[in-house]
């Protein structure tokens, strides 16, 4: 192992100690299963917004998106636009209604329990099926975070991959185990602020280093003019370090890139922030804070990738390390350590949320529902903690298989977006959804994602698109065919009063 960079090591140590301290403080306020899963529904608008989007962004923002911008140039904008639209619409059309309904519907703590209450599913099939889907895709999602952590520690400290992934897993599990939802949410605020600071400072300093925007664009054009053409595909060969122009970035590619925005309607860790905010009245201010953070951060990530194209005379063998490499090159080790801690923040802020959701599902939707309905809050909280450890171990094993951070995230993102997104949207606006329609939407969305991926993503179309469309069609079609199983008026009456609480 090479000599460890002391300034960076010290910065990381202080950062990690701070995250653990927050976990310990939150431990004192985590007494019930509601506290552990949703923080007692007492997040303010700032905490809810930054936690929602820090937990959403993960390593794909600082590693995946920056790497895509490095290899594809301005065509990374299609994903950014799609994500921004999806974020806004999810805050606008889902957040307030879901917050209000889940509290009134038996204080539903998870998306699975929301489905059970909304559709009066006494069979509990909806709850169990949705819980299984969450377990499958979140285990993949957590593994992507551990891969990203492995890349970071390996690059910065020269630690071999297995050890680096293990270090990432231990750190993330520690404070999530201790403090539950409140620890996750409050650490996300710190992590979110650190991430946006890094995504403003690093690209601007890098831009100055290459000579400003004129020098940046002329330098990119010298490498490959297609990188600056919105709507023109660009290929990158890591072996030779050369970019090459392809054909037009056609409709399928544009739709696939922008379809990432559809995922926001069905991500359980984001929906949990909507459910955990103090009141629906705080949704509007949370939406404004969240949108500001997201737009600034994603544009910063795009600029990091573009600056990297010009700054590095020797093209990168691994484009997903462009942020790390640029940070080490343009900043002194102490400041660079803070910026690199932002990558760790991005990884941790998502992995901790995902571990908590998996633990919540196993504890609330499976253990208490199917095994021990009389378990005390103290028992459930400790079971939840132990299941966090178990999930992390499984994700660790999967992470050792390696893979692209963005590729792993994209698969899990599509799984949740297609399985739950259409049903969440439709069920909050239309009383006519039946439990059969709900089940058809969930199963078809998840199954199509897996099938589309397994047959090699035909036409290059992102699996989110056909799966989301299929689910969105089957929810109303099957519901209309099974109107004899409509939920009672009591279960749907709340929908009439939603307009009064929407931001």
TrEMBL record:
Compartment list: Cell inner membrane; Cell membrane
Record membrane topology: Multi-pass membrane protein
Pfam families for this protein: SSF
UniProt-listed PROSITE patterns: NA_SOLUT_SYMP_3 (PS50283)
Transmembrane segments: 6-27, 48-70, 76-94, 128-153, 159-184, 196-220, 240-265, 286-312, 332-359, 380-399, 411-430, 437-455, 461-481
Keyword Disulfide bond found: no
Source taxon at top rank: Bacteria
UniProt keyword annotations, A-Z: Amino-acid transport, Cell inner membrane, Cell membrane, Ion transport, Membrane, Sodium, Sodium transport, Symport, Transmembrane, Transmembrane helix, Transport
Protein's name in the database: Sodium/proline symporter
Gene that this sequence comes from: putP
């Amino acid at each position: 192992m090479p000599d460890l960079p002391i300034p960076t090591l010290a910065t990381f140590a202080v950062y990690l100690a701070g995250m653990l301290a927050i976990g310990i403080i939150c431990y004192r306020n985590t007494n019930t299963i509601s506290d552990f899963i949703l923080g007692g529904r007492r997040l303010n608008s700032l905490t809810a917004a930054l936690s929602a989007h820090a937990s959403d962004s993960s390593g794909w923002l600082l590693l995946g998106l920056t790497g895509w911008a490095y290899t594809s140039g301005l065509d990374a904008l299609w994903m950014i636009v799609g994500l921004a639209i999806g974020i806004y619409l999810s805050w606008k059309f889902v957040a307030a209604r879901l917050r209000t309904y889940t509290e009134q519907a038996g204080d539903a703590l998870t998306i699975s329990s929301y489905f059970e209450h909304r559709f009066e599913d006494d069979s509990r099939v909806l709850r169990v099926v949705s819980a299984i889907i969450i377990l499958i895709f979140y285990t993949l999602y957590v593994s992507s975070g551990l891969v990203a952590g492995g890349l970071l520690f390996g690059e910065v400290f020269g630690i071999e991959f297995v050890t680096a992934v293990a270090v990432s897993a231990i750190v993330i599990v520690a404070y999530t185990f201790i403090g539950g939802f409140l620890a996750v949410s409050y650490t996300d605020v710190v992590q979110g602020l650190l991430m946006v600071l890094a995504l403003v400072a690093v690209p601007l300093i890098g831009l100055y280093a290459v000579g400003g925007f004129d020098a940046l664009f002329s330098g990119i054009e010298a490498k490959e003019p297609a990188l600056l053409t919105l709507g023109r595909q660009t290929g990158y060969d890591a072996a030779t370090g050369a970019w090459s122009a392809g054909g037009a970035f056609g409709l399928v590619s544009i739709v696939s890139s922008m379809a990432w925005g559809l995922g926001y309607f069905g991500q359980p860790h984001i929906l949990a922030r909507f459910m955990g905010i103090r009141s629906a009245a705080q949704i509007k201010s949370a939406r404004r804070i969240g949108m500001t953070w997201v737009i600034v951060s994603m544009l910063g990530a795009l600029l990091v990738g573009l600056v990297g194209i010009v700054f590095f005379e020797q093209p990168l063998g691994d484009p997903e390390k462009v942020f790390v490499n640029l940070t080490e090159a343009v900043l002194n080790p102490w400041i660079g350590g803070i910026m690199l801690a932002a990558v760790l923040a991005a990884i941790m802020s998502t992995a901790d949320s995902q571990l908590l959701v998996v633990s919540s599902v196993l504890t609330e939707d499976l253990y208490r529902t199917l095994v021990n309905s009389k378990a005390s809050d103290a028992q459930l909280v400790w079971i939840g903690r132990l299941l966090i450890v178990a999930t992390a171990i499984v994700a660790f094993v999967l992470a050792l298989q390696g893979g692209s951070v963005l590729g792993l995230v994209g698969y899990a993102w599509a799984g949740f977006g297609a399985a739950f997104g259409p049903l969440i949207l439709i069920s909050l606006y239309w009383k006519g959804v039946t439990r059969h329609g709900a089940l058809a939407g969930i199963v078809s969305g998840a199954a199509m994602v897996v099938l589309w991926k397994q047959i090699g993503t035909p036409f290059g179309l992102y699996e989110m698109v056909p799966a989301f469309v299929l689910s969105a069609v089957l929810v109303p079609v099957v519901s209309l065919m099974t109107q004899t199983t409509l939920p009672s008026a009591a279960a749907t009456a709340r929908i009439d009063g939603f307009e009064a609480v929407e931001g």
